[in-house]
């Protein structure tokens, strides 16, 4: 849980077999790990090794076996899961509302607008805990929160809401993610197929 009385630094230790292993949980590393997790071309063992090298600081100084690498990566994953559940953010559940890659420009601009934080200057510095606390509390006026609002809002029904319905549909289409667009286009194709078959 995010706390004002104790700072969870980006650089912290995990303990593996009595040895303290220095890891770095910066926002950019976590976002890279999310992308790595979704990679369809790499094998699982390759992903584990890459993740180990991304998060373990000075990984070359440790004499870890492949089994150690797997176990340490599991500990890092637990640390990340703890942070996500503590912050109230479940990245998998929010994937339809935002995407750290497709929304990169919106997120960057939003941090600049609300906090005057240039995220490019924070690469390797800003902890994931701090990033997600700030992200979850961006104001409604920011580009990413506008996108999230339109992606998640309901389209009103009824003849009295015709103009509002048209406006919201237009905004939903403007802000939709690639995955949402693909889903919408697939549904349209299925409906067309039903009509012709």
Helix vs. strand class: mainly alpha
* Portion in helices: 55-70%
Mean of all residue-level pLDDT scores = 88
Low-pLDDT windows of residues = 87-95
Order of helices and strands: EEHHHHHHHH
Our measurement of the CA-to-CA distance between the termini, rounded to an integer number of angstroms, reads 54 Å
What is the radius of gyration computed over CA atoms, rounded to a whole number of angstroms?
A: 21 Å
Number of helices, where a helix is a run of at least 4 consecutive DSSP H or I residues? 8
Spatial order of strands in the largest sheet: 1-2
Sheet with the most strands, sense and barrel status:
2 strands, antiparallel
Please tally the β strands and state the result: 2
Question: In percent, how much strand structure appears in the residues?
Answer: 5-15%
- Broad shape: globular
Give me a quick take on this structure:
This protein has 197 residues and is mainly alpha-helical. It has helices spanning 27-38, 44-55, 66-87, 104-115, 128-136, 143-152, 162-175, 178-196; strands at residues 11-16, 19-24. It contains eight helices and two strands, in the order ββαααααααα.
Report on the architecture of this protein.
With 197 residues, the chain is mainly alpha-helical. Helices cover 56% and strands 6% of the residues. The protein has helices at 27-38, 44-55, 66-87, 104-115, 128-136, 143-152, 162-175, 178-196; strands spanning 11-16, 19-24. Strands 1-2 form a two-stranded antiparallel sheet. Helix 1 crosses helix 5, helix 2 (44-55) packs across helix 3 and helix 6 (143-152) packs across helix 7 (162-175). The chain starts with 10 loop residues before the first strand and ends with a helix. The model is unreliable at 87-95 (pLDDT under 50).
